[in-house]
């Protein structure tokens, strides 16, 4: 992207506490032929070396002066201001085509700062965070963006035999990304989004193959919380021809305390944007929890299925299924584009089959009845006499998709 022949990387950090580490990282990048811009978002101390963008400029970009930031009641409040300023400056550099990648390094505060800036940049733009937090749950830092997290192993406090290797490897990784050049976009194909979990994978793969054979580009989102959240975000950023939302499980986990929670608005983005959308209640037959002992304590007296040592699923009851159906009615009735809803009357997942651990033939009927009673007349509802993973269900879905997209 950078208009000059030499790629440029922006390093965002607090240069009073991480100045030595940033200087070493800069030498690694420069040795690889990469130009470096340093942005200091520190608050209380002073940078240990001359930086490109100083903390006074960062505060001003957020509409404050540094004295006001230093006087704030908490470090968290001050960090929010400095992150906002750093984000504005980084976006300016990006929009002016002056940077080709971004790096950050630090502990909890530095990671919050660095990834907060990175999340404002588009998918595909190189982002790398060297962090002591990378061995924990990184979803609060990564969000819906493609941020690479390199675990710092020890505290990033000085250059020693461990930090030297980590910063070296991190610098080489970033240099490799920005020096490789921009790949052809491949964005010329019509784009279709599909949601799934392993328990509806047969359906998703059959649809994917058909659509790709028809010249579409298909992106599948794994509905584990972050997957659905990412899809909702990307729908607002790119042109999408159609969405096949066939795994509504994240709504179940949001409302009933499961682990795969993508927020209360999951499923609304394509409907609000007017994108032709096919919906099927895939995987609403279960809630996801952690190891069995944890799941049994959180959901006592329920029907369980141990998926593996880390994941236990809990059968949803009729009340929960009815609640999700009503939520879908609300979302669908607010749609601004064509919508069709397909209910697999012989089961919501591979587990909701005769002989499966969660088989309950009453669930699909209750779900479909609520939809039929509540949906607007211009929304098509199909009761299909199949399990969602039956080939016939996928084939019917394709026919209906072509009908509403006129393709």
What do the pLDDT scores average to? 94
Quaternary structure classification: single chain
The structural domain count equals: 2
Helicity, in percent? 40-55%
Instruction: Determine the CATH superfamily of the largest domain.
Output: Uncharacterised protein family UPF0261, NC domain
Question: What is the name of the CATH topology of the largest domain?
Answer: Rossmann fold
User: What is the general shape?
Assistant: elongated
Structure description:
The relative contact order is 0.08. The model has no long low-confidence stretch (mean pLDDT 94). This protein has 407 residues and is α/β, with parallel strands linked by helices. Helix 4 packs parallel to helix 5 and helix 8 packs across helix 15. The chain contains 15 helices and 14 strands. It folds into two domains: 172 residues, 3-Layer(aba) Sandwich (Rossmann fold), CATH 3.40.50; 215 residues, Uncharacterised protein family UPF0261, NC domain (Rossmann fold, 3-Layer(aba) Sandwich), CATH 3.40.50.12030. The chain has a six-stranded parallel sheet, with helices on both faces. Helices cover 41% and strands 17% of the residues.
What secondary-structure arrangement, pairings included, does this model have?
Blueprint: E1 8-13, H1 19-31, E2 35-40, H2 55-61, H3 66-70, H4 75-95, E3 101-106, H5 108-118, E4 127-131, H6 139-142, E5 148-151, H7 161-179, E6 191-196, H8 201-213, E7 217-222, H9 226-235, E8 242-245, H10 249-256, H11 269-273, E9 277-279, E10 286-289, H12 292-298, E11 304-306, E12 312-315, H13 318-333, E13 339-344, H14 362-374, E14 380-384, H15 391-405
Parallel strand pairs: 1-2, 1-3, 3-4, 4-5, 6-7, 6-8, 8-9, 9-13, 13-14
Antiparallel strand pairs: 10-12, 11-12
Helix pairs in contact: 1-7, 2-4, 4-5, 8-15, 13-14
């Amino acid at each position: 992207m950078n208009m000059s022949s030499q790629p440029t990387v922006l390093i965002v950090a607090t240069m009073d506490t991480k100045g030595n580490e940033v200087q070493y990282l800069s030498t690694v990048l420069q040795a690889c032929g990469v130009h470096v811009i340093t942005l200091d978002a520190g608050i209380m101390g002073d940078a240990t070396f001359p930086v490109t963008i100083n903390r006074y400029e960062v505060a001003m970009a957020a509409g404050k002066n540094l004295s006001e930031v230093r006087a704030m009641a908490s470090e968290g409040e001050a960090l929010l201001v400095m992150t906002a300023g750093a984000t504005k400056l980084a976006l300016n550099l990006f929009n002016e085509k002056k940077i080709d990648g971004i790096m950050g390094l630090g502990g909890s505060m530095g990671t919050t700062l660095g990834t907060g800036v990175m999340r404002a940049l588009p998918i595909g733009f190189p982002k790398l965070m060297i962090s002591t937090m990378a061995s924990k749950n990184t979803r609060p830092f990564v969000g819906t963006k493609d941020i690479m997290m390199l675990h710092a192993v020890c505290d990033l406090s000085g250059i020693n035999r461990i930090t030297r290797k980590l910063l070296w490897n991190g610098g080489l990784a970033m240099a490799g990304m920005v020096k490789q050049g921009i790949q052809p976009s491949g964005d010329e194909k019509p784009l279709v989004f599909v949601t799934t979990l392993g328990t509806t994978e047969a359906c998703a793969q059959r649809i994917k193959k058909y659509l790709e054979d028809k010249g579409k580009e298909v992106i599948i989102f794994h509905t584990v919380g972050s997957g659905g959240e990412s899809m909702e975000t990307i729908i607002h950023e790119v042109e999408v021809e159609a969405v096949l939302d066939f795994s509504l499980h994240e709504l179940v986990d949001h409302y009933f305390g499961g682990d795969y929670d993508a927020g209360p608005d999951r499923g609304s983005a394509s409907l609000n944007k007017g994108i032709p959308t096919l919906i099927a209640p895939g995987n609403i037959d279960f809630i996801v929890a952690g190891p069995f002992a944890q799941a049994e304590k959180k959901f006592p007296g329920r029907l369980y299925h141990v998926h593996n040592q880390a994941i236990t699923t809990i059968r949803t009851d009729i009340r929960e299924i009815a609640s999700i159906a009503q939520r879908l009615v609300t979302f669908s009735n607010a749609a601004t584009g064509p919508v069709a809803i397909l209910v697999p009357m012989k089961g919501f997942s591979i587990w909701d089959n005769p002989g499966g651990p969660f088989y309950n033939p009453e669930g699909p009927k209750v779900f479909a009845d609520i939809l039929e009673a509540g949906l607007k007349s211009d929304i098509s509802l199909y009761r299909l006499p199949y399990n969602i993973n039956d080939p016939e269900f996928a084939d019917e879905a394709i026919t209906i998709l072509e009908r509403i997209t006129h393709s």
